[in-house]
Amino acid sequence: GKLYYLRYPFKDRDGAITVATTRPETMLGDTAVAVNPNDERYAEVIGRTLLLPLVDREIPIIADEFVESEFGTGAVKVTPAHDPNDYEMGLRHNLEQVAVIDQFARMTEAAGAEFSGLDRYRARDLVVEKFESLGLLEKVAEYEFSISKCERCKTVLEPLISTQWFCRMDQLRDLALAKLRDQGKPRFVPQVPYEKVYADWLENLRDWTISRQLWWGHQIPAWYTKDGEVIVARSLAEARTKAGTDELRQDEDVLDTWFSSALWPFSTLGWPNETEDLKTFYPTSVLITARDIIFLWVSRMVMTGLKFIGKEPFDDVYVTGTVLDKHGQRMSKTKGNGIDPLEVFDKYGVDATRLTLASVGSTDTRWNEKQVESYRNFANKIWNAARFCLLNSEGAETVADPFAGDHATLPLHDRWILSRLNGTAREVNAQLETYDFHGVVQSLYHFFWDDFCDWYIELSKATMTAETDSPERNVARARLISILEQSLRLLHPFMPYLTEELWQRLPVNHSQFLHRAYANAAPTIMLAAYPQYVGTLVDERAESEMQAVIDLISRVRNIRSEMNIKPGDRIELLIAAKSDLQSVFAASSDQIARLTRAAQVSIDGNFEMPKTSARAVLAGGAEVAVPLEGLIDFAQERARLSREREKLQKEADKLENQLTNPDFVARAPGEKVEELRSRIADIGQRTTALDQVLEALR
């Protein structure tokens, strides 16, 4: 835009004061020029009178702390009818309000005969033209500033003075502030910064303009008589009674949307009547909302709830994060950068999308379809795991209580999964209490994928897939179904469709899992009790021992991969461990052999490990070795690994050269630079691992 420097002559002396404005057409409504009282440049002229050009209106020079001496010349024109700050200044100094622009952005008669009826921008050009012809246009400078525009049509908004209905806020504000300070309600999650944001806004609250010039909304309950008397009433009948006449006209304005919304928590429940719904459902526990409407909605619901019901409408306010586009911009219809959820549902599924949004939590995040895709893969994992369990569920229904008896006598992997399940239930319930939805998603994801699918199913597979029917097979199948059933209930709030579908298919008595409040309802996972933590089933020793077994199996699998041992080749395992771990490994030796494809598992306290073996140190001081003689061609494997190491080294050198080039680092996006550094670190780790393997093959 432009900044116009206009000169206003003194009335009773030579000279003029120059004011700077971005809207020269509004000078026709000026009623003063203001300066800062501490600005020494204007100390002698405060109180003097200026003669406003074009309209010959006498206007005073006033002093006001609001004026910024650094802006323009330090002297500003004051147009109380067309600027909110000038309006406030006008009230402080008792200035006249001259409206020179109407609601159609055309100049009024008060602007003068030459300007009346002109569009505001045509009037601007004419004002500048006349000031220039009078020698009163000092200069025009380029100037960048923000302007308010209509959200839809982008028309520049023009501030006008109009008669509106207001709601006095001091009493309502004090109620809300007292509730926050005395009882800490509502509790904001996260507390920082939103509690302070809420409190600061309340402390600086002003009276609220509640009338709007719209066609849709609650019409203002005010009527006017022929004589202009205002009658406020609850209904037309009451207004007629108060006025003593039937000739009334209702105010055409409607209430601000947020005023109506502020009443929502109780007006929807039958208020002002004392209904059962109002007694039962007010107040509620939590409001989940966005930070944008803490002022517009949250604070006003609290204030009206305390005023009309005497209770706050909710205990907690959970403020969600905002999902931004991939460039970090807010999504909007105007920018056209929104995401059509129906397209995402069709591509990845509703549950995967829901889980993605739940994982956002209270922090802003950029929309990333790869994250949705990963949760689609998780949904597939759940489906396939459940399908495997159902395909091997025959006989499970004959077992009334899969984990009956003394839990100490259960196999290690059964004690471990019960402990992990209950530990996860404890984590998830605690996280839900604190609205840590991101934490909940992570806990459930890792329990189901890592603990249940990757390990428990694999550890149980030999027994549950046995061809011969047996009580042991039925119990193993029933235990797997039991863990799956509880897992689906834990997942249900976050993946409702998938979990309902699978839960209904389980060979269990569904009614026994319903919450006691819905004991007689048709079985649905929606009404099932949410799994709770049972302390006696958490077994830290079982988790520690099982972790040692998992560590052993994982290390041996890594050795097979690194040494390029063929999947069909059976290996020998030599395990050296202390006596306590020896018994753990011995009890799980069949599972270890099956999951590492070992022909023989030997466990001792201190093996003499063969030279030509791949070795790994385990937790607890244990060690495992895989003799390589006869499994691989040592020379050929050394050559292959050396070529791989050389290739990695060349890639690392190339990346290092890029990062040592200051021009590249300066121009490249930060994400790209970080990606290269991560790749170099990864290459370093892989090179170290290759060196260790090459050493074992010498």
How is the topology of this model organized?
Elements: E1 2-9, E2 16-21, E3 32-35, E4 49-52, E5 57-63, E6 75-78, H1 84-93, H2 120-133, E7 137-142, E8 166-167, H3 170-183, E9 187-189, H4 191-203, E10 208-209, E11 211-212, E12 222-224, E13 230-232, H5 236-243, E14 249-250, E15 254-255, H6 257-262, H7 264-267, H8 276-281, E16 284-290, H9 294-308, E17 314-320, E18 323-324, H10 341-348, H11 350-360, E19 365-366, H12 369-391, H13 412-433, H14 437-464, H15 471-491, H16 496-505, H17 540-562, E20 571-576, H18 579-587, H19 589-596, E21 598-604, E22 613-617, E23 623-627, H20 634-659, H21 662-667, H22 670-697
Give a verbal description of the structure.
This protein is of the alpha/beta class and 698 residues long. It has five domains: 141 residues, Isoleucyl-tRNA Synthetase, domain 2 (Alpha-Beta Complex), CATH 3.90.740.10; 159 residues, Rossmann fold (3-Layer(aba) Sandwich), CATH 3.40.50.620; 187 residues, Isoleucyl-tRNA Synthetase, Domain 1 (Orthogonal Bundle), CATH 1.10.730; 93 residues, 2-Layer Sandwich (hypothetical protein PF0899 fold); 63 residues, Helix Hairpins, CATH 1.10.287. It is 45% helix and 14% strand. It has a four-stranded mixed sheet, with helices on one face. Helix 13 runs parallel beside helix 15, helix 13 packs across helix 17 and helix 15 packs antiparallel against helix 16. The model has no long low-confidence stretch (mean pLDDT 93).
Q: Approximately how much beta-strand content do the residues carry?
A: 5-15%
Count helical runs. 22
Number of domains: 5
CATH class of the largest domain: Mainly Alpha
Number of strands: 23
Which CATH-level-2 architecture of the largest domain? Answer: Orthogonal Bundle
Q: How are strands sequenced across the largest beta sheet? A: 4-5-3-6
Largest sheet geometry? 4 strands, mixed
Based on secondary structure, the structural category is alpha/beta
User: In CATH terms, what is the fold-level topology of the largest domain?
Assistant: Isoleucyl-tRNA Synthetase, Domain 1
Helix content: 40-55%
Q: What is the global morphology?
A: elongated
* End-to-end separation: 76 Å
